[in-house]
Design brief:
By secondary structure, this protein is mostly helical. The chain has 5 helices and no strands. Helix 1 packs across helix 2. The N and C termini lie far apart (about 55 Å).
């Protein structure tokens, strides 16, 4: 079987990869990179294609699908309340300034 052949994957695994890929693309990842990450996640969860052979009934590990959400926010949580608050104020000022600039350009 040539590399990249998806014939040994179930329909469910293909759907999972498609949804994961769409999610990455919405977050600005290129199409090729999104596809690679999606299939890597599906492989990590299921152990690869499940259509034939032994091990088809093995349980799935859903930890890789949750991994990104758990990791995110660690840098923010490490900062003090005052630092986070200052960053929020600065961001609000920037958004207001940009909105005003867009209005003046119309």
């Amino acid at each position: 079987m040539p590399r990249g052949d998806k014939s040994s994957y179930t329909d469910k695994q293909k759907r999972q990869a498609q949804h994961i890929e769409q999610s990455y693309e919405q977050r600005g990842v290129s199409e090729d990179e999104a596809e690679a990450r999606a299939w890597a996640t599906v492989n990590k969860m299921s152990g690869g294609g499940k259509k034939s052979g032994s091990g088809r009934g093995q349980p799935e590990n859903h930890a890789p699908a949750r991994k990104g959400g758990r990791i995110g926010g660690a840098a923010s949580a490490a900062r003090s309340f005052a630092e986070r608050s200052a960053a929020a104020r600065k961001g609000a000022q920037t958004r207001a300034r940009n909105a005003a600039q867009r209005e003046s350009n119309r």
